[in-house]
Write a structure and sequence with these properties.
The chain has helices at about 10-20, 40-55, 70-80, 90-95, 110-120, 170-175, 195-214, and strands at about 5, 25-30, 60-65, 80-85, 100-105, 130-135, 160, 180-185. The chain has about 210 residues and is an alpha/beta fold. It has one domain: Alpha-Beta Barrel (TIM Barrel), CATH 3.20.20.70. Strands 1-2-3-4-5-6-7-8 form an eight-stranded parallel beta barrel, surrounded by five helices.
Length: about 210
């Protein structure tokens, strides 16, 4: 089964919709400049409420070039299962994280082979790698896809993000056969906030692919 992470959660209702639709992981953005930023206490309240309803999912805290002590504090407060690092963090920082860590790799056009080599060699010592689209000054949430075919060789060991939405996620799954997919802007209203209809459509597309592939 393909893992599905819905990222950028900012309210209990939208997080609940994602889990009810079948998401495996929920992402909470702790990078203050981000438009999907949530304060750790607010995230903690959402996670606690959802844990009371179900333990069959995982909470991911997303950070960009953080201080390790700050990550440890937030991970404890919010009961995080995973940490995602989406900046320029070196391997020694990843090794010091308090939870298993997803390292985001921002794939530049023409440099896909470099990303593939990092994953194949596990250059950062990460628990998992997340392939996302490179954009200047943005650590993610670009709404743009990268060249999926170019990363086909390492797709099965990665989560994939960048421009995914209900009407193209099956193409990404077919091209990469990834461990999981990560969506944020592709399931949002035009003016921001998660759209329940799009969340459900995204999960339906992924699970439909899973059924056809078995």
């Amino acid at each position: 089964m393909t893992l599905v992470k819905v990222c950028g959660m900012r309210s209990l209702p939208e997080a609940r919709v994602a889990l009810e639709a079948g998401a495996n992981l929920l992402g909470f953005i702790f990078w203050k400049p981000g438009k999907r930023y949530i304060t750790p206490p607010d995230a903690a309240r959402i996670i606690s409420a959802l844990r009371a309803e179900s333990r069959d999912w995982s909470a991911v805290g997303v950070f960009v070039d953080p201080l390790p002590a700050d990550v440890s504090e937030v991970a404890a407060l919010c009961d995080l299962d995973y940490v995602q690092l989406s900046g320029e963090e070196p391997a020694d920082v990843i090794a010091g994280m308090p939870r298993p860590t997803f390292k985001a790799l921002h794939v530049k056009a023409g440099h896909e082979a470099t990303a593939a080599e990092i994953v194949a060699a596990d250059s950062f010592g990460a628990h998992r790698y997340l392939l996302d689209t490179h954009a200047e000054a943005l650590p993610g949430g670009t709404g743009r896809a990268f060249d999926w075919e170019a990363l086909r060789g390492v797709g099965p060991s990665c989560l994939v993000a960048g421009g995914l939405k209900p009407d193209n996620v099956v193409n990404a799954l077919s091209a990469l056969e990834p461990l999981g997919v990560d969506v944020s802007s592709g399931v949002e209203f035009p003016d921001g906030g998660k759209d329940p209809r799009l969340i459900r459509a995204f999960l339906e597309a992924v699970r439909g692919y899973d059924q056809r592939s078995n």
